Amino acid sequence: MNKLKTVSEQAPALAQSLIAENKKMDWAEELTSGKTTIKEMIGTDDGASEFLEKVTYDAYSGREAIPLVYKELYTTREDRNFPLVMTNKEFGPVQVVFLEKYEGGEVKFGTLAPGVEKIVRMVTYASGIEYNEDIIEYNQTWRVSDIGSAFGEAYNKLLNHLHLYPIVSGTYATTGASLSDQYEAQNDDTAQLIAFDTDIKTTLMNAMQVLPKGSKLLVNEFDVLRIEEALSGAMLADDRPNLVKRKLKMSDLIVYNGDEVEVGGKTYEYAGVDVGDAYLITPKRNFLEYIKHDLRIDSDDGDLSRLILTQVVGRARRGLLASIGGKYGAVKIELE
Questions:
Q1: Which DSSP symbol is given to 223?
Q2: Which residues pair with 252 in a beta bridge?
Q3: pLDDT digit string (tens) for 2-16?
Q4: Every domain of the chain and the residues it spans
């Protein structure tokens, strides 16, 4: 088990390296050619290590199929020493001025106002897959790969959901009767709802006045075309780009329709952006993911009574902080 533990810790880096180099595991061709059987792999100590590497490789290949679309919005902090519960203190206003330094004089130090404390709790996410005896009896190599790939896909679907759900499910209010009222309310930590106004271009411009630091737009794929049309037409009378075209490009759109995973006849649905809505977001500062450790995979003995050959369990320990209020938060936009 010590050897398997070492393999489980090293396998993710190996899998990611091979995928990046577009290479496969060394023994994969031998397995598919019939020179090696799955039974030989699982039935010996060395084979068990290779099998675990294979499953990890397939899982990370599956992850490649589901892009992590939230990454542009979040700052990532990874540390094996993160505690179960920790306090994150947001930075308050920073006041700094550069002055000429005279001989014998002192450097003028800036001030940092107190920020808001928020609690971040690490959560363990886990899932398991089982390989039954039929895989050995019929040497079903393709099933080994398919199961591992599905494992990785499910994990990335979860990550997208965890990080985008706080934005799409947040509470947004329309405060006051003017954009200046909404701007003040947003700065006071009340996330704002921007009502549709005349056309999409005008509505986006209103959103940018309420959240001037917003630079990413989270949307449903069915609204991409009309947003693209709005951006292409966002020109002033003298052919200069207006605020919308200057601040937003098509590359700033993040498309997320939600997703789903089906397990044992039960469907787990992950909510996405509704058609007709969009979210203007200021990335990174108010959106942080904390990773104690990413996906870790281990295998162990199966269950003879159910003809389960081996069991594979993956788990990750992570936390996140998402604040939609404030000048570094998000606003919800009605596109119609």
A1: G
A2: none
A3: 555 554 566 566 666
A4: 2-68+126-166+300-315
On whether the CB atoms of residues 241 and 235 are closer than 8 A, the answer is yes
Q: Within 13 A of 218's CA, how many CA atoms are on the CB side?
A: 29
Strand residue runs (E) in the chain? 74-78, 85-89, 94-95, 111-112, 117-121, 123-132, 193-194, 216-219, 253-255, 258-263, 266-271, 277-281, 284-303, 308-322, 330-334
Instruction: For Cα atoms 262, 266, 267, give the angle at the middle one, nearest 5 degrees.
Output: 50
More confident residue, 3 or 270: 270
- The model carries a pTM of 0.83
**Cβ-based neighbours of 327, under 8 Å, separated by 6 or more:** 186, 187, 211, 212, 213, 282
Q: How far apart are CA 161 and CA 336, in angstroms?
A: 25
Please report where in the chains the tokens 């519960």 appear, as a residue.
85
Q: What would the pLDDT profile of 183-209 be if each residue is shown by its tens digit?
A: 999 999 999 999 999 999 999 999 999
- The Cβ-side half-sphere exposure at 5, using a 13 Å CA radius, reads 2
